[in-house]
């Protein structure tokens, strides 16, 4: 899908704006939303398993490329707590804020809220649960910005807009975005999580199997239908959705539905604001068994003292920044 989107950027570089927007909605929107759900699947370490978290993070950055906005590592950071503290105020950032619940109450306002969903989804965590940035998030941003600049340099502004527009529109008024509503909005009072078993799962890595996913979050999306078939008694009697468009329509038109139709609990634990240094920990692990002594000396000593985690992380980030700057130097000559 990543390579196909690069091909589309080449194909659309001289296209009319109307075609850019149409392709962005019907083609780019479906693919880019699928890539966000690939990132969701990878965030559970389903690509390489829990033994190789860093491989999963880098693979998530690869899947992130056509989305045009660096989300992969940040999504992982918050999504873990969505599973661990489902519905808990201030911890599960998937739950709308009080402002959203109280303001977007009528059909026109709910339609506007759906249109703005990508912005609420992106910025809500930064407002209600501010976490310190990590070295991997910075690296994710560097790689993503480098890719965006490369698209701009080689294919032009229209191709970059195609990617951005596909990402934004697919998270708002688009059938792919129906899962944002279907998963946890209370269409039935005594049920908190809902599944959808329709054909749209073919475009969304089976994210519709959401009850199953919350029961077994480390099972890849491709295997969730098999899980349901192995344990039908646990899922057959639950309320389920049959149409993404019907979900969005009912959400907008039904007065009892809205951003407020979510179960919210009091938090069991306090918020944590620290940032980790996963990249440093990986390098440190390699260094322990590295036979090349000069590398050990450089990594573990600084004037006879041990380097702090944040120091080595900064060195690594600086190195990547310099490499990216050198790669993109021809682009900067244009300005």
From TrEMBL:
The keyword Oxidoreductase applies. The chain crosses the membrane at residues 111-129, 141-165, 315-334. Residues 17-236 form the Fatty acid desaturase domain. GO terms for cellular component: membrane. It comes from the Eukaryota. One of its GO terms (molecular function) is sphingolipid delta-4 desaturase activity. One of its GO terms (biological process) is ceramide biosynthetic process. Coiled coil: none annotated. Keywords: Lipid metabolism, Membrane, Oxidoreductase, Transmembrane, Transmembrane helix. The keyword Transcription does not apply. Belongs to the fatty acid desaturase type 1 family. DEGS subfamily. PANTHER family: SPHINGOLIPID DELTA 4 DESATURASE/C-4 HYDROXYLASE PROTEIN DES2, SPHINGOLIPID DELTA(4)-DESATURASE_C4-MONOOXYGENASE-RELATED. This is FA_desaturase domain-containing protein. It comes from Caenorhabditis tropicalis.
